[in-house]
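Quick note —
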Amino acid sequence: MCDASGRPPSSSLADLSREELAIWAGFLQTHAALARELDADLRTAHGLPLTDFEILLWLANRPCEGMRMTALADTVLLSPSGLSRAVERLETRGLVQRIPCAEDRRGAYAALTEAGNELVRTAGATHAAGIRRRFVDRLTSQETRLLTAIWDRLQPGSQETCAWPETLASETDEARIGVGAGKTRRTRRNDV
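Predicted structure written out below.
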């Protein structure tokens, strides 16, 4: 039996409407399915799980100084011990090296080796092809722009709540470079 909103009365997410629950569940299910498929691509082609590739990719963007282990753990959403185990695997393969932190003897940096850089390049091509095939190519250019605007709005620290529809839908250069861009309006839950 469902209440007037279509939710089961005992739902632990009773504050979400059927549509809200559907978009949240859809996001989670889509992310999980894409992550599984992209992980399988990397494991098959390079013997590298997606989480390890993500670590290498972040380190590739910091080629000179590496990255503090604690910051890297936060960035890739691993616990410090989980990151430590992953870095150990990558060190064993000769892809990453730990560098003691001069400022804090308890801390360490992780940095890519030349072999790690090379693997990021080759595995990156595999990963990019998988992203394109499974995600990007399945969206229209309008959907791509809309999702980009949504992801920007949902980023932590963003004050934007809802962009004006004409800003998101416009195909003109004017809208993309600032005329009307950035306009927001506050919405309440029941606004249509």
